[in-house]
Specification:
- The complex is a heteropentamer of chains A (about 350), B (about 240), C (about 240), D (about 400) and E (about 290).
- By secondary structure, chain A is an all-alpha fold.
- Chain A is built from 16 helices and 2 strands.
- Chain A has a two-stranded antiparallel ribbon.
- In chain A, α2 packs parallel to α7 (about 155-180), α2 packs across α13 (about 260-280) and α4 packs antiparallel against α10.
- Chain A starts with a helix and ends with a helix.
- Chain C is α/β, with parallel strands linked by helices and about 240 residues long.
- Chain C has a domain at about 20-30 and about 40-185 and about 195-205: P-loop containing nucleotide triphosphate hydrolases (Rossmann fold, 3-Layer(aba) Sandwich), CATH 3.40.50.300.
- In chain C, α7 (about 160-175) links the parallel β7 and β8.
- Chain D is of the alpha/beta class and about 400 residues long.
- In chain D, about 35% of the residues lie in helices and about 20% in strands.
- Chain D contains 11 helices and 14 strands.
- In chain D, β1 (about 20-25), α1 and β2 (about 60-65) form a beta-alpha-beta unit.
- At the A-B interface, α8 and α9 of A face α2 of B.
- The complex binds adenosine-5'-triphosphate (2 copies), leucine (LEU) and magnesium ion (MG) (2 copies).
- One adenosine-5'-triphosphate sits at the interface of chains B and C.
- Chain C: Belongs to the ABC transporter superfamily.
Chain lengths: ~350, ~240, ~240, ~400, ~290
């Protein structure tokens, strides 16, 4: 019974969220709010993409910003240098980044825990160096200008991309859900808990990690590429930034990494908070302090995220206490068993 | 011939953990592997299941060479194992822990009725069904030990390698586990059990291999081992 | 005494035990009964929700492990608690962390090296690289470095081979003879009860039966339920 | 700078007494914060001067300034906000080429006039912007034109033979250095070292070692500020003495002399602005600026002020200042007219590129003075440079 | 000549890297904490040195009298107030995020207090140097190097030879067991963290002698330092020192043919090579986790 009511609750929540996302553009009072909406959706896709790796396998990557940057640059370069149509370029770019994620993942996923985090940071820094230095190809610090896919007025441009991001988000969330309920997903989660044990139980851990890393990279690249088409100006310093990567982690954590909509909720919260800090403390570096403090609070007091915290709260209101201790003595158990035989 | 190793050797720096272990386990039987602390039993399991690579020697299973294969491949070939220091998935519930051992297969949902029923029945057989929805990290040592056993049995490997299944398990329950092992063996499963609890070993095994310093020094049925002098000297300490 | 973890239901529900100096009290019970929890409370790792811990007539409820050590209470944990990335030497010497008397330490070191040969053999290697049983031995050796008034041992024989098990039980007896109060948790229940003076069966966080160890051992009903034997009359539950 | 809220008054038609709101995003924090703040002062000085005189078209001028944290993504959002949400009447540019390019695109797409104080690199003018105007005399690549002419005019035996270039990886900084490099190479001065370093470089000993080992006659630093100082100190540590050393922007900074141990004599730098320049409005600017901020204006401040002047000229001529049709009028007017500013008369080609040249300053007797071109010089060109 | 000069420069640079990396190694190897904020504190120390020099006029080296104890105390505080709250099971991962947050906070506060302007200590001997075998060594760089060597040796002795060092390592490996042996784990862990942070104070002072500082500079240091500790073998102080020297030298030498930017990639190339060929690091082994 609690299962059914829970399902109804979740169902309504999803419907409400979807409806809110869909009607937002028509309620947005001006193009600026709309463009902020695009940004938040972009964050939501990125955080959800991050969560394929972070949520399932427990490998925390601070380097996903770099994958998004790669997606953006690949899309841009394919349009500019190869003359591909924008969305063909986007698709090819995502495939390229996914392909590149194979060797990257093979190197990075060999190590666990802290080493992996370090590798992911290194990934950002090395790509930054390469994209800055290899100016003849990437445009270097001059940046890369990605032509607009549609000839639309700016507000219309925002609106179209808003819906494109919404579609991408829906696909990413769906993919996450599919994996979450699958055996593949359970295998990934067992990696998160104890990799050796999982392997001994027959899970091809390396292949699993690699597959999910590639999937994650693909979605991240799609988001990055779509962002490039929307935004138009790429600069290595901002495309390959640890800060972006860490915002994704913050969002996913804040929302809850074990939860389908955790990253989305986190993106909405953090995205809005970032805007707010900017407005409030915009002319001082205190926005960094605010971000830092927020992150610290989440890590210290809500390491499982907001959604699970709310879930716990609901559970606590629910009176029925659960306990792990056995409620019958060994003797009673023996009796029961005898009766059952 | 099922699980066998030939001249398996493994040294860690100066310590020779396995020193030419040639062993042949009897298929369809309950085999025991005993020996003093540090005689190389766990290392032997690790080599067999691919967790570490032997320096030399061969591991074969049903005439297939498994030496140096990845652990998951070996597991899929039909060898399941438990760990001496019990290893459960701490933040997964007991039920999920057991389900995680179901052979994996793509995006199909794991929440099939039969899987769950099977998992629950294993928990019940090991006396921890009341913990199905508790996370493993909240369990006592012995409970985790049992949970791990349930996990490996869920995978239904043809050959089950158990590293000290009795460590920390209540003796009353242990009797039941002994019975369970015999039952499963009767269904055709092969067991290789590392254990220091001689009562258990002597009562359930058909064939015993005794290790000392990384190699077998004796083997045979319990009655023979019980009175083997080398075993008495090296292991039982009498 | 009442105790539990986090917000979950209590694990110990009105449990009391007293351990006279110069006696071994053995605590047995099914997995998850709360034995380890009793020791953790007594050792100061877990604060009881209700009830008191009394050492030598003094109420020390709520004291941390460091203070408990000051009161002469020493606890050896269940499972493996060696410092894996430190050498055996460092592990053993850390056992004497609170001692300052170099000569006494040297004496103790010589003593543990003698009774556990593996400690001497592997003096310089990292403890984490030893086999499971070897680690257990190092751990026990570490606990022998001090002379506490009260020793709490959580399954000290788990994973040990028969020889080492005997050594451990000998040492427990030696401690008792030296006037130490020993509270021993064991799943190797028959052996433990043979050694102990008093026995106490714990189930569901309560004392089920307690009495002289020999008497418990002889009780056929207890045997079936907790030691492997015949069932006793059920105790009503709330 | 308490400025207009978010009310977004949509009917700011000319003739009303509402203030004219000018929207600006500036890098007040982050990498470009120092020059960013300089430009801010320039803007504020301009607004005060205009308002003291009764405003533009009889309306007061109000600045709405946002901080973009030196971040290109932010700067776009800022202009998006200024134009879309705050409905400002006019926008003017941020500091630095890196931020100008993306923000100019937003203005372009909302059909807004975009006069900017600091997008000097040539990339700015290659984007096809139709509404952009750079409010300074010359683009980066032309900053050293006078110096190049002078060097190449030296008698053959005095003329330097080799040159070393070290430039920050930044379109502007590289633009200045490479503008000179191109001309010197064409004139036969051999390039012996050509180094590019990322903006965040702090350790210059490696670059310095290369330059010192090559013993180049001329050293050209494509620098912003601190990197120039660091490079000089590293070179001093290695005992390298060039005959001629030129750095973009760094030497004009008030802290410069002290930072390199006062061994400044002979160091060169291009500038688009001089406090003593004879242009009509300049005297007023220097005077009022000093009164307002208690210090003399530098180049960054002048650039901000100039930007204001350019916009003001267009608004006055077109007789309007609001979003919509009016912006086109402003743009058209600027394309076909010349504006008198504190850096001299400015006019632009179709891409918004100004048509002037920079002057060359040199440290002489603990002061920085204009030495080139000869017709406006305040001191004689020192060559070769004394040891530092 | 250029080669010899570059080798010298590489050596001096390597010394500084070694000191800073060993602080990181301390947290990680001994405490399983990935301390992203280490370089933020490094910059903070440099700022304090600069500030004292600028305001009070004392030599930056003297600032250590204040910063080293201050940082030690701050480290103890951080550990006791924040890091202890993390669950042991997820300590490593969560510590990354927590210390990342601390880094952001420090950076923001630095920016707030001192603005984003680049700062540099101006000393009478900033550009002084002396010559050996035709190459020049700047006095400030030599001082920084000597500081690094002293701090590094002190650290090594402390960890391997003192009771405190043992207690610290025991605490990290099995906290409950350590408590049961009478070790005051809270205090010990706090001190351990304090010592790590104190190395940042020394390093920051050394850094301030010869480079520019600005609030976001710490990002610039994180990458190379992290790469060094992986190449050196996570947790090994001598390993970190050796890797730092080798990589510092390599960076310096590679600058000759490749230029500044590409030369920086040597750290990451080394990092990836390490992972490919010797994941446990080139200069120190780690336990196999399996059992
Ligand atoms: N990773 C390792 N590195 C170094 N030495 C090791 C390693 N693993 C095991 N050894 C050594 O190899 C020997 C055999 O260890 P193993 O764990 O196989 O013993 P075991 O027979 O399982 O003993 P126990 O009954 O105590 O579990 C021991 O001396 C141990 O110290
Ligand atoms: N950290 C914990 N959090 C929550 N519950 C716990 C925790 N540790 C133990 N428990 C629960 O408390 C009960 C008693 O555990 P305890 O470890 O004391 O049992 P035990 O008698 O020592 O069992 P074993 O023989 O298996 O070691 C168990 O039901 C267990 O599920
Ligand atoms: C002349 C300067 C104001 C130009 C500016 N530094 C730029 O990046 O374009
Ligand atoms: Mg073993
Ligand atoms: Mg227990």
């Amino acid at each position: 019974m609690p299962n059914a009511s829970k399902r109804i609750l979740v169902g309504t929540a999803i419907a409400l969220l979807a409806a809110a996302i869909l009607v937002f553009p028509s309620l947005a009072p001006n193009p600026y709010i709309l463009s902020s909406g695009v940004l938040v959706l972009n964050y939501a896709v990125l955080a959800t993409s991050w969560n394929f790796v972070g949520g399932f396998t427990g490998y925390i990557s601070l380097g996903h910003g770099a994958l998004a940057g790669l997606g953006g640059y690949a899309t841009g370069l394919l349009v500019v240098k190869a003359g591909l149509p924008s969305f063909a370029a986007l698709a090819v770019a995502a495939l390229l980044v996914a392909a590149l994620a194979v060797p990257l993942g093979m190197a990075a996923l060999r190590v666990r825990g802290a080493s992996f985090v370090i590798v992911s940071i290194a990934l950002v820094l090395i790509l930054l160096l390469v994209f800055q230095s290899w100016a003849s190809f990437t445009g270097g610090s001059r940046g890369l200008v990605v032509p607009r896919p549609f000839d639309l007025s700016r507000p219309e441009h925002h609106r179209v991309f808003y819906y494109l991001f919404a579609v991408l988000l829906a696909i990413a969330v769906l993919a996450w859900w599919l994996i979450d309920r699958s055996r593949f997903g359970l295998g990934l989660k067992s990696i998160r808990e104890d990799e050796d044990k999982a392997e001994a139980l027959g899970t091809p851990t390396f292949a699993y990690k690699l597959i999910v890393f590639v999937v994650s990279a693909g979605f991240t690249a799609l988001a990055g590429g779509l962002y490039a088409l929307w935004f138009g100006d790429l600069d290595p310093v901002f495309q390959f930034s640890i800060l972006t990567g860490s915002y994704l982690v913050l969002m996913a954590l804040l929302g809850g990494v074990r939860n389908l909509f955790g990253p989305v909720a986190g993106a909405i919260l953090v995205g809005t908070a970032l805007e707010y800090f900017k407005v409030e403390y915009g002319d001082t570096p205190l926005h960094l302090v605010a971000t830092g403090v927020l992150l610290a609070l989440v890590v210290l007091f809500m390491p499982d995220g907001v959604l699970p915290a709310i879930g716990d709260l609901l559970k606590r209101l629910d009176r029925t206490k659960k306990s792990s201790i056995r409620e019958v003595t060994a003797a009673e158990l023996a009796e029961q068993r005898k009766a059952a035989v | 011939m099922s699980l066998a190793t030939h001249e398996l050797r493994k040294a860690f720096g100066g310590v020779t953990a396995l020193d030419g272990a040639t062993v042949d386990f009897h298929p369809g039987k309950v085999n025991a592997l005993i020996g003093p602390n540090g005689s190389g039993k766990t290392t032997y399991f690790n080599c067999v299941t691919g967790m570490i690579k032997p320096d030399s020697g061969r591991v074969t299973y049903k005439d297939r060479d498994l030496t140096g294969k990845a652990p998951h491949r070996i597991a899929r070939a039909g060898l399941g194992r438990t760990f001496q220091l019990c290893r459960t998935f701490p933040r997964m519930t007991a039920l999920e822990n057991v389900l995680a051992a179901v052979p994996h297969g793509g995006l199909r949902s794991f929440r099939t009725r039969s899987d769950i029923e099977r998992a629950m029945s294993w928990l019940t057989r090991l006396g921890i069904e009341h913990l199905a929805r508790s996370e493993a990290r909240d369990m006592s040592w012995g409970q985790q030990k049992l949970l791990e056993l349930a996990g490996v049995l869920m995978a239904e490997p043809e050959t089950v390698l158990l590293d000290e299944p009795a460590g920390g398990v209540n003796p009353a329950l242990l009797d039941r586990i002994g019975t369970l092992i015999r039952e499963l063996n009767a269904e055709g499963r092969t067991f290789v059990i590392v254990e220091h609890n001689m009562d258990l070993v002597m009562s359930i095994s058909d064939h015993i291999v005794v290790f000392d310093r990384g190699r077998p020094i004796a083997e045979g049925p319990p009655s023979v081992i019980r009175s083997d002098e080398r075993v008495l000297g090296a292991y039982l300490g009498v | 005494m009442q105790a539990g973890y986090g917000r979950a239901a209590p694990v110990l529900r009105g449990f009391s035990v007293s351990v006279p100096a110069g006696a071994i009290v053995c605590l047995v019970g099914p997995n998850g009964a709360g034995k380890s929890t009793v020791l953790k409370v007594a050792g100061g790792l877990l604060k009881p929700r209700d009830g008191r811990v009394i050492v030598a007539g003094k109420d020390v409820t709520g004291a941390g492990p460091q203070q408990m050590l000051g009161h002469g209470v020493s606890l050896v944990l269940q499972g493996h608690s060696v410092f894996r990335e430190m050498t055996v030497e460092e592990n053993v010497l850390l056992g004497a962390y609170t001692l300052r008397d170099a000569r006494k330490i040297a004496e103790r070191v010589a003593f543990v090296k003698e009774i556990f040969p593996v400690v001497a053999d592997r003096w310089g290697s990292l403890a984490g690289l030893l086999s499971g049983g070897q680690q257990k031995q190092v751990e026990f050796a570490r606990s022998l470095m001090v002379d506490p008034k009260v020793v709490l041992l959580d399954e000290p024989s788990m994973g040990l081979d028969p020889k080492a098990t005997s050594t451990v039980f000998e040492q427990v007896v030696r401690m008792r003879d030296a006037g130490t109060a020993v509270l021993l948790v064991e799943q190797n229940a028959r052996r433990a009860l043979e050694t102990a003076d008093l026995g106490c069966v714990l189930d569901l966080g309560r004392v089920h039966i307690s009495g002289p160890a020999r008497q418990l051992l002889a009780d056929p009903q207890l045997g079936e339920l907790y030691l492997g034997g015949r069932p006793a009359e059920p105790v009503p539950d709330i | 700078l308490g400025t207009a809220g978010c009310s977004g008054d949509d009917q700011g038609s000319s003739g009303s007494s509402d203030p004219i709101v000018v929207g600006i995003s500036l890098p007040l924090t982050g990498d470009f914060s120092e020059p960013g703040k300089g430009v801010q002062e320039g803007y504020e000085a301009w607004a005060k001067v205009v308002n003291d005189k009764g405003g533009l078209l009889g309306r007061q001028v109000e600045l709405k300034i946002l901080d973009d944290q030196s971040n290109a993504d932010r700067v776009v959002a800022d202009y998006e906000q200024l134009i879309g949400k705050d409905q400002v009447d006019l926008v003017v540019g941020p500091f630095s080429t890196r931020l100008v390019v993306p923000s100019a695109r937003v203005a372009e797409e909302y059909d807004m006039l975009f006069v900017e104080p600091a997008g000097a690199a040539k990339e700015v003018f290659e984007q096809g912007f139709k509404n952009l105007f750079y409010a300074a005399p010359a683009v980066a690549n032309d900053h050293y034109n006078h110096l190049a002419e002078h060097i190449l005019a030296l008698p053959a035996d005095q003329r330097p033979k080799t040159a070393a270039y070290a430039a920050m990886d930044d379109p502007f900084a590289q633009g200045t250095a490479y503008g000179l490099k191109e001309k010197l190479e064409a004139g036969g001065v051999k390039t012996v070292v050509n180094e590019v370093y990322p903006p965040n470089t702090t350790d210059f000993s490696g670059i310095a070692a290369k330059v010192a080992a090559a013993k180049a006659d001329v050293l050209v630093g494509g620098s912003q500020y601190q990197d120039g100082v660091n490079l000089i100190v590293a070179l001093q540590q290695l005992g390298y003495q060039p005959k001629l050393a030129a750095f973009s922007t760094a030497p004009t900074n008030p802290e410069f002399a002290k930072a390199i141990g006062n061994k400044t004599t002979g160091i060169l730098s291009p500038t688009g602005y001089s406090q003593d320049a004879p242009y009509e409005s300049n005297k007023e600017f220097v005077e009022k600026f000093k009164a307002q901020f208690g210090k003399a204006p530098e180049e960054d401040q002048a650039n901000g002020y100039t930007t204001g002047q350019v916009v003001a000229a267009a608004v006055t001529a077109a007789g309007c200042a609001e979003q919509g049709e009016c912006q086109k009028k402003l743009v058209d007017w600027l394309h076909s007219n010349k504006v008198d500013t504190v850096v001299g008369p400015l006019s632009w080609d179709q891409t918004g590129k100004p048509q002037g040249a920079h002057m060359i300053q040199q440290w002489v007797d603990n002061d920085i003075k204009i030495v080139l071109p000869a017709d406006v010089k305040e001191a004689d060109f020192v060559y070769p440079k004394p040891a530092w | 000549m250029l080669l010899f000069q570059s080798i010298l420069l590489g050596l001096l640079l390597g010394g500084l890297y070694a000191l800073l990396a060993s602080g990181l190694t301390l947290y990680f190897g001994i405490m399983r904490v990935v301390m992203i904020a280490h370089s933020a504190f490094l910059i903070l120390a440099a700022y304090l040195a600069w500030w004292m020099h600028d305001r009070i006029g004392v030599d930056p080296l003297l600032s250590m009298v204040v910063t080293v104890p201050l940082f030690f105390a701050a480290g103890v505080g951080l550990q006791r107030l924040l890091l202890t709250r993390l669950r042991p099971a997820t300590l490593t991962m969560m510590s990354v995020l927590l210390t990342f947050a601390i880094a952001l906070t420090v950076e923001g506060l630095l920016g707030y207090a001192f603005t984003g302007t680049q700062r540099r200590v101006q000393l009478g001997y900033s550009s002084a140097s002396f010559e050996i075998f035709g190459a020049r060594i700047a006095v400030v760089k030599l001082i920084a190097f000597v500081l690094a060597v002293i701090a590094l040796s002190g650290l090594y002795v402390l960890m391997k030879r003192t009771r405190f060092g043992w207690a610290l390592r025991a605490t990290i490996q099995h906290r409950d067991a350590a408590r049961l042996l009478g070790i005051d784990t809270e205090r010990v862990a706090g001190y351990g963290f304090g010592i790590g942070l104190a190395t940042a104070a020394v390093g920051g002072t050394a850094l301030s002698l010869d480079t520019t500082i600005y609030p976001s500079l710490h990002w610039h240091w994180i990458g190379p330092l992290m790469a060094i500790i992986v190449v050196g073998g996570l947790g090994s102080v001598p390993g970190a020192a050796a890797a730092a020297m080798v990589l510092g030298m390599a960076q310096s030498l590679l600058q000759i043919p490749m230029g500044t930017t590409w030369a920086q990639t040597v750290f990451y190339v080394a990092l990836f090579a390490t992972l490919a060929f010797r994941p446990q690091g080139f200069f120190g082994g780690r336990l196999a986790q399996r059992f």
